[in-house]
User: Fold these one by one.
Assistant:
Number 1:
Amino acid sequence: MMKLYWSPRSRSFSALWLMEETGQAYERVLIDISKGAQKTPEYLAVNPMGKVPAIKDGETTLAEAAAICAYVAERYPEAKLAPPVGDPLRAKYYYWLFFGPGCMEPAMVQVATKLEMNPVAAGWGEAQRVYDVLDAALAKGPWILGESFSAADIVIGSGLNFAVRLFKMIPARPSFDAYIARCMARPAFQRAEKIAAG
Ligand SMILES: N[C@@H](CCC(=O)N[C@@H](CS)C(=O)NCC(=O)O)C(=O)O
């Protein structure tokens, strides 16, 4: 059974939501980051970055929420969390999986810390443009790839839920609010929220 290392009220939420979407049994291992459990030698052997989430599948360990989304989606194809290889949607699926940690997350941190960056040097450019691009992509919906929900929605939906709804780090927009509401309506999201609340 796959193990998920997680901590309440953290970025582990996306991995919890993901595992709940698979419908597969998994074991949750609490790594309480408020108590420093992420820096023990045992946990650093799982994720040398000392961050949650991480997973263990047999002898394989993996961290980074978006990488976990990509891996688990392929591990459990019956959950239909990724367009199959050869499907034209696969390109956009990769785009949004990488857009999360590559553009959305650093833009959020930049806005929260009021850090001035040269937009040409910053890989995510300008935070405003990141939100405009997301806004345009989500305007139609219901999901980031259109009709089909995928693990990319777990990456993008968790990020927007965190930045817009929970921490109000970036201004709400109608497309963001509607998308977050659709994510929140999913039973797997609701189960993950219950677990993540600790
Ligand atoms: N890039 C990582 C970030 C994970 C991360 O920052 N996790 C935070 C919790 S939200 C953490 O483990 N912090 C504990 C620490 O840094 O000591 C991912 O996307 O999974």
Note: The chain has eight helices and four strands.
Number 2:
Amino acid sequence: MTEDGTMTGEGMMMGENAYKPGLAKIADITLEATGERAIKTFKLEFLDEDLRKNFTFKPGQFIMVSVLGVGESTFAISSSPTQKGYIEFSAMRYGKHTKALHQKQIGDILGARGPYGNSFPVEKWKGKNILFIGGGIGQAPLRSVINYCIDNRKDYGDLNIIYGARTSKDLCYKDEFSKMAGMDNLQVHLSIDVEEEDWEHYVGFVPSNLMRLKPSPENTIAITCGPPIMIKFVIQDLIELGFKDEQIYTTLEMRMKCGIGMCGRCNIGNLYVCKDGPVFSWDQIKDLEGDM
Ligand SMILES: Cc1cc2nc3c(=O)[nH]c(=O)nc-3n(C[C@H](O)[C@H](O)[C@H](O)COP(=O)(O)OP(=O)(O)OC[C@H]3O[C@@H](n4cnc5c(N)ncnc54)[C@H](O)[C@@H]3O)c2cc1C
Ligand code: FES
């Protein structure tokens, strides 16, 4: 922690004010999804030079972002730790806080504290194929791991991305997926729920696309994130395809307040999602399904 009590890149240290955010400038904003619930990606640069240069995190971790004077929300860090000097998060417009966030412009100042939570065990996954299955804004934490794997390409096998949203307007990161199209050993399978003119990819729900593609479980880790109903069916389908519980990972989004294991708001069973998660293997949480 710096002398004025702001967090460092190692995450929050318990001190005089564990909730004090670092101030960060919005360096860029990308409008990702223009559907009913718009999604924007915000690129943040900490004002404090030390923090900007040394902020480190791992794929799967999250931050608490505040619109000063309005409130605070939890967001997965959607950029990869291989991208230095800034962090990105992608926010869907929902209620009071995210509506205020969506009104912010490049150059405006936000608060950010973190990084918090555990992360995807990317070191343990070296040498494996990785299957990413995302729905809607659930692609945000997956984007961090995907770009991490791309930037450390020799460490991983095939990367297979299955991603869908309700309509083509709700799909995020479309430009990035177009750039990935030419990469070796990387495949992207996009889908939308209902037919649209000029749509060239799959039409149907994400679990149906998964079952159509039937990826092999051999030497493969599957990570899924999206609406709870999608995750439920995707996990059932992965098991039917032969994936073992310990080959399946997800990241949970229980409502949070403190983000640091103090308030008890985010528990499922005896786990605090903010401290014990948000990343879990299916093996760890399958018996808590009713609480999710
Ligand atoms: C670990 C974690 C990671 C997250 N990562 C992201 C992320 O990367 N991008 C992102 O956009 N959001 C993410 N969220 C969700 C995000 O924190 C909330 O959407 C946000 O706090 C909503 O704040 P608000 O003030 O705009 O809405 P509120 O005023 O708090 O809520 C308004 C209404 O919308 C409902 N609501 C709010 N958020 C959601 C939601 N996500 N799903 C369904 N109903 C909702 C509320 O129950 C309420 O009825 C994450 C949450 C967690 C816990
Ligand atoms: S959000 Fe407070 S304990 Fe998890």
Note: The longest strand covers residues 22-33.
Number 3:
Amino acid sequence: METNSRSLSSDVTRRELLAVTAVTGGALVGGQLMPGIISPARAQDAGAASAPLDVVLRVNGTEHRLTLDPRTTLLDTLREKKGCGLGQCGACTVLMDGKRVKSCLSLAALVEGREITTIEGLAQGADLHPLQAAFIERDAFQCGYCTPGQIMAGVACIAERHAGSPQEIRDWMSGNLCRCGAYDHIVAAIQDAAQATGSVRGG
Ligand code: FES
Ligand code: FES
């Protein structure tokens, strides 16, 4: 089947290497009303210390057995670097059972049994996800800070069939901020990927 996915081949240029790094994410360490979602205040300050909990997390199809402070957010479980940590920027967006969530607002202990997908889980072997490829084609990033969250939210936006027009994409991606102002390119990349996968509303 014809797709616009691109291979993670070794003959990429330096520009492409930076691009691939941005769209495939960083190191894996460990809203909507969904289990595990907490308020920003609780995420920041969850009160007195509690006994560690054994937690089994499924991330990108792999089970991870962890012992965590019950107050640990999903974001802190997944990554060393984080964005605002307050639910405001969208940089921490991951998929939970296919739905987008801000991982800084989710407690890891409360998402046990859920299927978590991060940017590292999008590519199929050496083939980038169509939206990752579109981000490279459209130069849809500059510093790359927001890019993993933009792509995960974009994947959900397409799956929700909210990518029917540039304005619709802007509306449904409004929770993901880009301080570099790459919005036009991000919208174009999402539109390309939606068309490539036939996931445009009414299409
Ligand atoms: S780090 Fe989660 S929304 Fe900013
Ligand atoms: S590319 Fe720099 S914040 Fe979006």
Note: Residues 1-5, 7-12, 27-35 have pLDDT under 50 and may be disordered.
Number 4:
Amino acid sequence: MIKFNINDTEVEVEPGCTVLEAARQYGIEIPTLCYHEAVVPSGACRLCMVELKDGDWSKLVASCIYPAAEGINVYTETRRVQNVRHWIFEMLLAQCPGSMEIKKLAEKYGVTSTRFSIENSDEECMVCGLCTRVCEEVVGLSAISVMDRGVYKKIGSPFSLPSNACVACGCCVTICPTGAMRSRIDAVRGTPSVTLTQLAL
Ligand code: SF4
Ligand code: SF4
Ligand code: FES
């Protein structure tokens, strides 16, 4: 077993556990968006940042991909963590102003507005790739993927055409943390999907 400290309390977890998994085992709350226990974590949204401290030295890490290690000291609510979390929420509010899920989570952490400019007030997708990972790792299909690069990155089926590979299981819609996949799934399937959309609501 590995022993380390979270917020000055000793925790003990199995080797291979991440800091986020350890925190959850002990009921310590860390906000997440792109994490889901069903798929391999990717560290895409950075919302789960925590601070590692050793004397005067400290650094911020994404807890969903940082492995628990013997003797480390992790803090989940320092000023530095709260600052970076605030910035990340502001960036998400600007990137996904259409997402009620993000608005609600940001509000819970006291963030209700953004200083960043908003380009598309309907956008809900933060391009975290969780939907593509569940399609590939759990469903075993890769019917959707992250397309293009940089600010043009988006989620969809190859060449943005309806995909025969999609079996309409709805896993991507269910796992999407922002609600964005609800409005994208019909384009992926190529047929209107009242059932899937209703299931996700
Ligand atoms: S559709 Fe949802 S799960 Fe997929 S990348 Fe966008 S926000 Fe993430
Ligand atoms: S609904 Fe289609 S795209 Fe979504 S996870 Fe299932 S197979 Fe993949
Ligand atoms: S939840 Fe850890 S980076 Fe998104």
Note: The beta strands are 2-6, 9-13, 49-54, 57-62, 73-75, 145-147, 154-156.
